[in-house]
């Protein structure tokens, strides 16, 4: 007990010193950070608890954030629980705009009139706390026009809340399958912009962030839409950081059925290509307005990719279009989106394109490669074999997530955050 109390006091002391140091002493502080991190790892995230871990990485990131602030136009801050209670009318039910396995999302308005969305974790647990810490860490670092911006967070008592910019047009899910689906606010032009914007966000995570990030939960409900219907990829609670040179990480399977790449669903092998597969399903949703999984019988479900492939083989692209568009679409763009999606959904991960290639293909910039897509083996009659059947009907929930993370999982997440600090 004395050791734990001493460590907490030392951490607070280091944090206060760290925040007061000028930027030109960053090199000296980096050494302190390295030694402190080593001590933290030796004690283990499970021993100190996730909240200590959260305060640890927030303090450790402050110097990096000051340096990043010179080139980033926005920043985040720590909110008080009292402030968020006032903004959301005490988390009134009428303010609720979404709900998931993590908890609920509420609309709120700050004292300056700005609108926010507040993600409130439902249950306090080591697992939820770690996902909270990872999401705050990643969102606090990444900046891209198609990634949802972090406004801040609150961690008081057992309350864990993340504050974002409010997206007035809600999510892609709401427009394809939810409360706005009958209004057909997504014309073809908006759908193409959402496809390209989401692709650019993933390309940034996979290829331009350091270290690289895999999202692990790309789906329609995690693509939010701003006032101009521009895509904002959100929800990084399941995200993983990929060390330089690593081809994949083996981890507990988390995500949503219908979007999971087969190698990830069956073997837990997470990589950038898993996000590429999930993005393929998202593209087919955008085109067709159909859900990722179609229930054929009480025990059998068919993926949207398995529905689309036979039509693509026979070049019946017009039959895939969402009927709500009433035939108003650009034929060349439709064909391009379908071909790209089905190649991205290839059962062999090594044959899927990268998100950089996907972005260029969707924009029509790789014309020769696009022409070659039609000649891919998967579009040849009787060549393709369905290797994506991993019996989703055998699972009782559309959300795949371990009931309880092991200490090794927690330690792995802590190690991921440490990887950022070593850069």
Automatic annotation (TrEMBL):
Gene3D superfamilies the UniProt entry points to: Phosphorylase Kinase, domain 1, Transferase(Phosphotransferase) domain 1
Annotated CDD domains: STKc_IRAK (cd14066)
A molecular-function term among this protein's GO annotations: protein serine/threonine kinase activity
Compositionally biased spans, kind Polar residues: 413-423
Record's keyword terms, sorted: ATP-binding, Kinase, Nucleotide-binding, Serine/threonine-protein kinase, Signal, Transferase
UniProt cross-references to Pfam families, sorted A to Z: PK_Tyr_Ser-Thr
Binding site for ATP: 119
InterPro entries xref list: Kinase-like_dom_sf (IPR011009), Prot_kinase_dom (IPR000719), Protein_kinase_ATP_BS (IPR017441), Ser-Thr/Tyr_kinase_cat_dom (IPR001245), Ser/Thr_kinase_AS (IPR008271)
Region Disordered, annotated ranges: 387-423
Residues in the signal sequence: 1-17
Domain Protein kinase stretches: 91-370
The family this protein is said to belong to: Belongs to the protein kinase superfamily.
Official protein name in the record: PTI1-like tyrosine-protein kinase
Naturally occurring in which organism (per UniProt): Platanthera zijinensis
